[in-house]
Every structure is written in structure tokens, then in C-alpha cells.
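Internal ticket - ligand job 717, adenosine-5'-diphosphate:
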Amino acid sequence: MVVGVLVELSSKNIDKVFDYKVPDDLVSSIKIGIRVIVPFGRMELEGFILEIKEDSELDNLKEIIDIKDREIILNDELLELGNYMRDVTLSTLISCFQTMLPKALKAKNGNVINKKFDTYYILVGDYSEIKLTEPQQEIINLLKNGEVLRKNLVDISLSSVNTLLKKGIIEEEKKEHYRLDYKDFKEDKHILTSEQQSVVDSVCDNSTYLLYGVTGSGKTEVYMELIEKCINDGKTSIVLVPEISLTPQMVNRFRARFGDRIAALHSALSDGEKYDEWRRIYRGEASIVIGARSAIFAPLNNIGIIIIDEEHSDSYKQSDPNPRYDAIDIAKWRSKYHNCPLILGSATPTLESFARANKGVYKLLTLPHRVNGKKLPEVIIVDMNKEIRKSKGHFSPILVESIEKRLSLSEQVILLLNRRGYASFVSCKNCGYTFKCPNCDITLTYHKSSNTLRCHYCGHGEKVFTKCPECGEESLNDLGVGTQRIEEELTNMFDCRVLRMDFDTTSGKGKHEEMINSFRNHEYDILLGTQIVAKGLDFDNVTLVGVINADTSLNIPDFRSSENTFSLLSQVAGRSGRSSREGQVIIQTYNPDHYAISYTKMHDYLGFYKQEMMIRRSLKYPPYYYLCNIKISGKNSDYIYGEALKIKRSMERNLHNTIILGPSANTIFKLNNVYRYNIILKYKDVNVIRNYLIKIVDHYKANSKIKIDIDFNPRGI
Ligand code: ADP
Ligand code: ZN
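stdout (C-alpha cells):
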């Protein structure tokens, strides 16, 4: 017997299936989709069996050394999916398979997980003829309802347990101990509103549905109802949520309704815990999987529905490393494979998604109202150009007054500090002016080494001014402010308890959930945080949401900066006034007339959509054109720039109907002594582009001085 093995070697030029002979004692264990250990040069490597055959065309085959799995870990579906992923991301097949599996199943980590076992007792023998003591009777009564943990019976009476064991009435059973302990959650199932019900009734075939529902419109309730229908049909479900910050509240609500049918795959779990959850899913012990991006690969059979909540979130796209896949694409593929619906839910869908719904590519479902007729909160825009001089620190008088009022009423406040992204840009502290690229309408990035401002889409460059061209003040360069500083200002101004939440304070395991719970229990008055507080949280007692600085996300050098700002502000505004009390939102900004801000004030997604679509059309951005970012990196800046130019020229000769920008310096131009350039393509037909890029990737495969990474439909460049 010969097997074709795809070996685990992350080097870019080895992504091949090699033939190996199978020694006689292993023949009976060989299956496609298990891992084996094989000799490779002087190394021993792990690999996946992808083929089984009688013979090979090659002579002198080496033998496989051992097998690693008794059960198949890559089933037919995942094998096919891997090929699809390789084709759409242009990365190696092995990297695609590795991405699908929990870390613990990847090379090297394979053996470190020790399984833990719990001892249970079950009722097996006939006790009708036996005279039972009181504790014995008690034990049997418990076991009549099913297995019971050893510990709980021994607490009643160890000697009775032993007697019953000896008489063969009860038996011991060992079951794998899963590392997660689930608390009990109770949530009442709501009767759906007629809007919710009609959404549920509309979902029928394997289409992609866009569920556009305002914040608090009861989307989660709709998801749960759809899942319950699946359970009744004996089918399984996947629910994706953006990131761990959203997961505890969501998971708790799901667990309250569906109990331990839920498996949660989120990033706060240790590798061991993730592996436990993966195994529960694999064995069919969990039928509903909730998790972040990679949960889309959950090894479920018979999937009845896939739900992607907050579909606009960047986190569904893997930006780094390869394979740079989009979980929504994977979801579409699996929904076709399982012939089941895919639901994309959001209060602020991406322009691409909403445009698809308008064209009928997706089926549009809407929830235009909050549940029980609750109003969307009133939004007040504060013009900081006027208010900054009257402000205390970063707080305008109206925000101060409103916080004071909420505190006096024992209501709670959420404050968002909109932190800038990765890039540094120059802006005017006085009027908020930022420098933009005349070609791309993208905020220019500051490059310290050359003291210039550059567009990292097209490469356009300008020298830095010290005076603001708008207001003439010498007040350029805003150093930005952190949550700690705002916290100090708050505690100086008010007698209040501030809970600060950002990526630094939530990194501990379970920390985030703990914080959410303590805020819910009103151990704090104000929740202050970065983007993390905007997402999905549902607190009854919050009646004021304040945005300290709306502009930072507007200035991020990304063609989506308006969309991202609108989405962020609408999402955070949606945290206010979710109970019977009316909510208020106060947004401080230097750009009060910017449409991303004024449409937030009016809660007008459609208005924003129309205006933004016009801009996208005139500047040839998605959804009118697709984007692809070719990342070219290496240690020798001159050399890679030269090669990048060659690539660009050859593309100009060969790719028609394609706009080619760059090469331009990446926003993070130099990292660990590696220089990075981008070439950005705007195109209409992906097939032409893909075939050409395959050639380029191939051409540089064996060249160790340069690395080419392809990012289709990038989120952030
Ligand atoms: P969304 O996900 O759209 O923001 P949720 O599903 O979180 O909205 O619902 C908002 C709130 O309304 C939650 O507290 C939820 O329990 C409640 N809710 C949802 N549907 C109903 C309903 N049909 N009847 C009563 N309350 C509901
Ligand atoms: Zn430009």
C-alpha cells in the first residue's frame, strides 16, 4: 500500500504530496484525512494522508514511521474546503488545513494534551429482590434519573456505593472531563414580535440572507429561534460572533436556552480548552457552535444553518498570516455544501453586503424597530471647534452636565474613547484638519524617517507643514490620549466609580466577562473604554453613551474610514436606552458636518449608504470595484522596490480593465528589519487577476530575498 502525504513544512516552496510506503502493521489503520509521521530528508515531519493507492510511479519509496490519529480529522468536506481555500487565497494547501484545525492538532502540539477523566456511576442491575438500606435507596433514586458523578454519591455513603458495586447493581463509568465548567443561566424564551416572526418564516433555502436590524431589534432572539428549528430537524448550527469581547454575553444567552448543546470556541480559551470543545463537536456531543472567525471550520455534520452576527466586523477577515481568508466566503461555501441558509446580521451592514442585497444576490430581511417599540436614543452632536475652549479636559460642558445628571439618578454611563488605529497621521489640534491624498481621498500617513506625508495606496507624497493650512495655527500633530488619562479626568470631576476597559485591562482570562458582570451589577457608574465597549453589550441601566472623540476613526487611512466611523458610532449609540428609560447619546467631534456623523445622529443607515455609494463609485472603490493588495516584503529595501516596480510594469502590460496603484510603502513600512511595499489592484473580474497572480507567486517561490503575499478584498491596507 502507498499513501500520498501532504507534509507540514511551512516553507513556501514545499506544498506537495509525497508518496510513502505503508508498513504491513499499519495498513489496517490507514485512512484518508489522518495525520502520519514520515521521514523527510533528515527530518521527521507530520503530514496528512490525502491519497491511498496500490502503487507509486516512483521507486525507492520511504516508509511512513507512525500514525498520529485513529479518527479522521479531515473529513471529505474539510478536504474539499481546503482546496477551495487554497484557490481563493492563493496560499498553500497545508496552511489552509492547519487553519481549520485547533492548535493542539497541529504539528508539534499533538501530544501535549492529557485528557482528564471523571468517574460516574450508572444503574445496571436489578434491585427489586434486594432489601435496601436507606442510603442505598437514596443512591438508587438518584441514579434512576441517569448517571451521577462519583463524588456526589460518595458524599451520601461510601460503603453503600461499594456494596451496590459489589452486588452488580451499579457500575462505574469513566467519561472524559471537559475543562470548561458551565454555570447555570436562565433566560426566558420570548414570544417573537410579528416582525421577528416574519423574518424567521422567510428563511427557507440555501440562500445568503442579510438581516438588517437596528440595534436592540431582537436579532439574537431571531437567531435562537432559527437554531431551535434546526435542532427540531436534527440538524446542527454555527454562530459566528466578532471577537471574544462579544462572546460571554451571547454565549450565556445561548446557553440559557440550549444548555450543553453549545460548544463555544473563543479566543479566551486555552489551547487545551479549545481542543476539548473541538472534540465535543467532532463527536456530535455539541450541536451548536458559537465562536469567532475560525469557528467557521467547526467539524459539524449535517449543518442546518450558519449565522454570522455583526457581519460588518473586520474580524471575519484573516489579514495576517496566510491564508488571508474571509469567514463569510467559507460560510457561503459550507452553506452550499450542506444546502442550508446563511444569515448575515447587522445594524450597519457593509456597503458590499447591502449592495448585494439590493441587487438580489442576498435576500434582504429587515427589523426596522426596536423590540417593544423602544425608541432609538436621541443623539446630540457637540462641535468641539466651538466647545474646546469651554471644556474641562476632554469633556465639553454638555457632556459634563449630562454625566452629572445620570449619576444623580443612579443610572449608568458608557464612554467611548475612539482610539486611532495602527497608523500615525498628522492632524490639527485646533481645528481637526487632516491631510488627505488628492488622488485617493485617503488620510496621509506620517513617515518619520523622511519627515513626509505619504499615501499608502498610490504612493503620493508631500512634505510636512508646521502650520495648519486650514486655520493657520501652529498646532499640528495630535499625540492622542489614552483611557487612563480620561479616567483621571473623570475621577477628578465626579464622585464616581469608573470601570476602564481596553485591551490592556481585559487580557486576563475571563476578565472581560467579570467586568461586564460587575458593571451590570452596578458596582461601577461609568464604563470607559475603546472600541471594545461598542459591541453587542446589553445593559438595562445605561441611559447615556458619550463619545469623547468621534474623529480618530475618520482619519484612519482607509477608504472605509467613513463607513467604519458610522458603524462604530451607531453601534455604540445602540448601547443606550435599551430598557424602559429613554437613552441619550452625546458625540464630541471636530467634524460636526461630516455625513458619517450627521447620519448617525438621524439613525439613517440608508441615507449614509446612498451617499457613501456615490463616493465609492466616483473613486472606484468597493462595491464598484474589487480590491486586491499585493504585499511585497524583504530585507533589502532597494531590491524589493525594484522587483515591485517590475511586477507593476508587467501587470500594466498584461492586465486590462484593472487599475494598478503603487508600489507604495505599507503603513508599517519597516518591521523587524523587513521592508514592506504594496501594490493595490482595483478590478472587476477576479479570474483574470487570479490567474496572473498565480504566475507571479510561482515566479518568486524559490527566491528567499522577497516574499509575496496576496490579500484579496483586504480589510485595512
Ligand atoms: P439585537 O441583537 O438586535 O441588538 P437583542 O436580541 O439583544 O437585539 O434584543 C434586545 C433585547 O430585547 C434583549 O434584552 C432581548 O432579551 C429582548 N427581546 C428580544 N426579542 C424580544 C421579544 N420578542 N419580546 C421581548 N423581549 C425581547
Ligand atoms: Zn493616493
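Auto-summary: DSSP finds 20 helices and 28 strands in the chain. The domain at 194-367 is CATH 3.40.50.300 (Rossmann fold).
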